[in-house]
Amino acid sequence: MTQGQFTSGNSKLVQHSITTLEKYAANNMNTYTIMKKLSIFFLLLGGLNFLACSSSKSTNGSVPISTVIMSDMKFAPETINISVGTAVSWHNLDSKTHTATASDDSWDTGDMGPGASHSVRFDKAGTYKYHCKHHTLLGIGMTGTVIVQ
Asked: What's the pTM value of the predicted model, to 2 decimals?
C-alpha cells in the first residue's frame, strides 16, 4: 500500500467522521466535548497512519510507538498489542490527573495532568496489566493491558 493510497482511502473516513461530529454539534454538545472527541479521533488516526505506513521493527535504531488515550475515566484502547521493543505512549486528554502504573509496580508514568504524555518501552514479551492509581479500587476502574509479542 502506498502512502497516497492510504491517505486517499482515509479522506472519506475523515470526512464521514467530521460530518458525524457536526451532527452531534447540532444536538447542543458543548465545544469542549466536541474538541475532545476530535482530538481522540485524530490521535487514533495518526496511530493508524503510523501502523499502515511503517514497520513495527525499526532498522535505524528508533523506537516504534503505540498510543493509548486517557479520556472519560478510561484507557483507549483498553488492551494494546505491540511488538517487543515498542514504546507505548499514554496521552491524557481528560480534565483530571491520571497515571499508568504497572500492577506489579515495575513501571509508572507518574502523575500526568491534563494534556501530559509519557512513554514506556517494553523490551520483553509478556502481558502487562496496569491501572490509574487515582481511579482504580480493587482492580475496578481505569485499567488496561499491554500485550507484548
From this structure: 0.59
What's the start-to-end Cα distance of the chain, in Å? Answer: 24
**Residues facing residue 81 across a β-bridge:** 147
The secondary structure of residue 83, as a DSSP letter, is -
Query: CB-based contacts of 2: which residues, under 8 Å, 6+ apart?
Result: none
Read off the DSSP letter of residue 29: -
Q: Please name the helix (run of DSSP H) or strand (run of DSSP E) that holds residue 53, with its range, or none.
A: helix 31-53
Cell 476530535 found at: 38
For residue 8, the Cα-to-chain-centroid distance in whole angstroms is: 23
Q: Are 116 and 92 in contact (CB under 8 A)?
A: yes
Residue written as cell 535505524?
60
Q: How far, in Å, CA of 112 to CA of 32, rounded?
A: 19
| Closest of 7, 89, 16, 79 to residue 48, by C-alpha | 7
Rounded to the nearest integer, the mean pLDDT of the chain is 76
Q: Are 96 and 114 in contact (CB under 8 A)?
A: yes
Q: How does pLDDT run across 106-119, given as a tens digit for each residue?
A: 999 999 999 999 99
Q: What's the CA gap between 147 and 84, in Å, rounded?
A: 9
d(CA 115, CA 127): 27
